[in-house]
Amino acid sequence: MPNKSRISDLAIFGGHPAFADKLHVGRPNIGDRRAFADRMDDILDRRWLTNAGPFVQEFESRVAELAQVRHCIAMCNATIALEIAIRALELKGEVIVPSFTFVATAHALEWQGITPVFCDIDPRTHNIDPAKIEGLITERTTAIIGVHLWGRACNIEALARLAKRHSLRLLFDAAHAFGCSYSGEMVGGFGEAEVFSFHGTKFVNTFEGGAVVTNDDELAERVRLMKNFGFAGYDRVVYVGTNGKMSELSAAMGLTNLESLDKFVAINRENYRVYYQELSNLKGIKFTSYDEGERCNYQYISLEIDETQTGISRDELMEILWAENVLVRRYFYPGCHRMKPYADRPIGPLPETDRVARSILVLPNGTTVTLEDVRTICNLIKFALENGESVLSALRREKMTIGSPGASV
Ligand code: T4K
Known about the structure:
Bound molecules: ligand T4K
Number of strands: 14
CATH architecture of the largest domain: 3-Layer(aba) Sandwich
Strand order of the largest sheet: 2-10-9-6-5-3-4
């Protein structure tokens, strides 16, 4: 990118966008295309397209092995996997969850007539704050669902202690945490069960996909039956079930991508390292860092923007970057508690969730993002912040005269 030296060089004020094409957060990581095409041929030759086919079984074994867990039940997506895990664990009444998560975590409960009770997050980790859980427990509470946000595991020990003390079930939404560890142990075997997502935007994708992983043999058997209508044989149904099956095509994509897992981590990590170097010391920026002592997939790069120090708000910075074709995202704004139907209910104050949701910005990462892209994005952010006051007055002037400048967010 030619360096931006004047405010008017910013695309939002009429300059050339730094990127000719849109740079997305969540561009899929794709492994060896030839290997995938060969697997696709195998599927067509075998004429076995779904229903626990050989690729699904192989994918389940590989995921179980990588997550160091006894059972993996692959599914069509993580939302259905969460719903099935919740049902198989016989949760009811109220379940305590963080509000700062993708809305699927809450919906998976609500969809089954269970009330999600939103808990605030620990501002240092963005994960559910164990210290705030006890005050939310009632006689209707049956479980806690922790979400390993950005792939950084929850405070699992504290959650397990709480769950034990109050006889609650413990489930983890590990949608972001495939390939990550906690105290040296791979995410997958904690709580009663954990749920991975293999959606197109995730570190390892199966187009759409998810999985329940667990060390509990009985639970695994229930989950396996429930994801196939409750069939225990050709004509024998033993549970109310649904259709949560993963297709052979998805499993073929998953197996292909797993073969490139180390490469995906290496690219993500190198991008993360440059983002960290360039942005972590900026005034008013709190960079979400990963623990180098743990296994991480480094898929999510997120920052908190403290407007009181940067002068520019998160949303203003986002507008500036969108105009440059950097489509940063404000995951998980505004928090589930501010979305329907939850927003219509009386919900206790969640100050940390509100603050982080107002200030978070997620930047592009993954195998389609080059180190040069990362440096360009960092330079744009630094330029906008260094010239905060002039950028801001130009932005506000322009908004007053023409309504809204270049980008629409
Ligand atoms: N729990 C948590 C904590 C989660 O984060 C999620 C999903 C779930 C549970 C449920 O998992 P799944 O049921 O989805 O398996 C995206 C994903 O759709 C969602 O899977 C993910 N979390 C969430 C964090 O992000 P959106 O609304 O941002 O999707 P969308 O369509 O805007 O895509 C994101 C960006 O990725 C776009 O800018 C374009 C790019 N993209 C997307 C797709 C699908 C591509 O370049 N190619 C693609 O194929 O939710």
